[in-house]
Specification:
20% of the residues lie in helices and 32% in strands. With 160 residues, the chain is an alpha/beta fold. The two termini are 22 Å apart. Bound molecules: NADP nicotinamide-adenine-dinucleotide phosphate. The site of NADP nicotinamide-adenine-dinucleotide phosphate (NAP) has 29 residues, from strand 1, strand 2, helix 2 and helix 4.
Length: 160
């Protein structure tokens, strides 16, 4: 199973403010939908509440929470249990938020990043993966836009 983090961050690695996104770029939301459609998505309870507890369609939604158990979506109280449940899938997307990215980045195979060019105020940050570009992460694809860049990084694996 390939684990892929998909995330949007500003130049200071801000990803969230007051439980929601600090920006609105419809092109980024469309990109997110296109990339994740058909694959399971794994998210923290705060992100699920941001979605008003409505699962995103066309994707199996899996929630991490130690305090809640939803009737309409699979909920796990540990990452290991959630990953075990998802293990038969070819790939899964980790869609946040900050706590979940932090706990899963070391097991992640690929990062799909929207780098927002403008600075935003926020209270939730992405774990600093940029210090590891060139050692752990290799940029394999980039698509430049006026307000943001879409970038794909793959984990560098020793061969031989
Ligand atoms: N820019 C982006 O791409 C992006 C993407 C996603 C989210 N965000 C932003 O990020 C912010 C939310 O992030 P966050 O860090 O506050 O919250 P979060 O990661 O969405 O959720 C945290 C919650 O997940 C549960 N949890 C965490 N680790 C767990 C584990 N090991 N096992 C079981 N449950 C676990 C806990 O729920 P309980 O308290 O119920 O136990 C915890 O309170 C929002 O502002 C959102 O808009 C941004």
């Amino acid at each position: 199973m390939k684990i892929v983090i998909i995330v949007a961050h500003d130049p200071n690695l801000v990803i969230g403010k007051d439980g929601t996104l600090p920006w609105h770029y419809s092109e980024d939301l469309k990109f997110f939908k296109k990339v994740t459609m058909g694959s399971p998505i794994l998210m923290g309870r705060v992100v699920f509440e941001e979605l008003n507890e409505k699962p995103l369609p066309g994707r199996e939604n899996v929630i991490l929470s130690r305090s809640k158990e939803y009737e309409h979506v699979k909920t796990f109280d540990s990452i290991d249990r959630a990953l075990d449940y998802l293990k038969t899938h070819e790939q899964i997307f980790v869609i946040g938020g900050g706590e979940i990215y932090k706990q899963l980045i070391d097991q992640t195979d690929e990062l799909i990043v929207t780098e927002i060019k403008k600075e935003h105020k926020g209270d939730t940050y992405l774990v600093d993966y940029r210090k590891d570009i060139g050692t752990i992460w290799r940029e394999v694809w980039r698509d430049e836009h006026e307000d943001f860049s879409f970038i794909r990084y793959q984990r560098i694996r020793e061969s031989g």
